[in-house]
Each structure stands twice: as structure tokens, then as C-alpha cells.
Amino acid sequence: MIYVLILLPVSLILTVMLIKRRQHENNKPIIAAYDRSPLQQSDLPHGHGHLPSFTAQNQAGRPRFSILIVDDQQAIRMLLRELFEQEEVAVHEAGNGTAAIETVRQTPLDFILLDLKMPDMDGIETLRAIRRANRTVQVAMITAFGDSGTLETAKQLGVQSFFTKPFDIEHVKNSVMNSLTKMDCKVDPQE
Question: What is the CATH number of the domain that holds 157?
Fold first, then answer.
């Protein structure tokens, strides 16, 4: 019964997001569909050093950021995938801890959204294995339940953000994109 209560709002949110995306795509100016070249520094007026948007593509036109969404609920993974793909972020998914660890070993990632409660291994166990494979990737935890001891362990393993289910998708998107943008500015302030 609790899964029905969780999945029903998530499916409604997904439907609304898809409708909004189609409306947004239908309202784009025609020239935007053809002009995909990224804005160059030389295109900026004198004195403007950094682009203020969440544009997530690098100079080669490939996504600049790559995230992994780890959750055993497919509807949540789909919702978050849609959300971040709208920001032109490369999105990878894992339905359990084992798949997440394998993805981290094989794929360069900038950010991981990690569910705390999963069937094969919990988020903390998964996070420990992720940290053995990648010590620098940013991680945020998603949880419906969390005791203070578990959250403190997550903080010790480098988790800076926690999102409680049901979460505000705009808050999640803005938080992740802000973290990625700050990280990108630290890595290469010349872009």
C-alpha cells in the first residue's frame, strides 16, 4: 500500500513533467533548434568572465556533467533522469548497490544521487564501496527514513546533501546543478 502511495504521486509528477517539456519544446524559437553551437568567451561583452546559466555542455558539444541515479524504484529514477536530461546532463541509472558500484568503476562521474534503503545493500554499504573506487565524486543521499547515526556516517563518507522522500524535484535539481557548477568553476575557472 505504501508503494502505491509513493508511486502514484511520482507517476503524476512524471506526466506533468512530460507535458511541460513538450509545451516548452513547442514554444522554442525555430532558430534555437538549429543553432547548437556553444557560446564562446569571445562572444561575451567585455568584462563578463563567466556564463551564469546551468549550460551543461562542454566546448565539444558533449555533456559536461555526468551523474548516477541509484534507487530501487524505477519511477524515481525515471523522474530524476528526465529532470537532469532537460539540463543536458549525462544520466546513468542503477537499480541497486551492486550495479551502482560497477557503474562507478566503469564510468567517469561527477555526482551520485544515492538511495539509502535498497534491497541488496543499503546506501551506506554502497557508499563505502563507491569511496574505494572514487574518493572525489560528489554524493547526495535520498532517504525516506534516516536515523542520526546513519546520517552522521554518511557525512563522514563525504555526503554533503540529504533529500527526504517525497522530495521537491526543483530543489533537488537546483542543489545538484549548483554543486556541479561550483565544482566546474574550481576545476577550470577559465571556461
Answer: 3.40.50.2300
Question: What one-character DSSP code corresponds to residue 36?
Answer: -
pTM: 0.67
What are the backbone dihedrals phi and psi of residue 159, each rounded to the nearest 5 degrees, phi first? -80, 130
Task: Give the tens place of pLDDT for each residue, 58-85.
Answer: 545 567 899 999 999 999 999 999 999 9
Contact in structure between 83 and 113 (CB atoms under 8 Å): no
Tens-place pLDDT, residues 105-148: 999 999 999 999 998 899 999 999 999 999 999 999 998 876 78
Is the preceding peptide bond at 29 cis, omega within 30 degrees of 0?
no
| Structural domain containing residue 166 | 63-187
Q: Is 7 helix (H, G, I), strand (E, B) or coil?
A: helix
Any idea of the CA torsion for 122, 124, 126, 128, to the nearest 10 degrees? -160
Contact 140, 161 (CB under 8 A): yes
Number of domains in the chain: 1
Do residues 130 and 139 touch, judged by C-beta distance below 8 A? yes
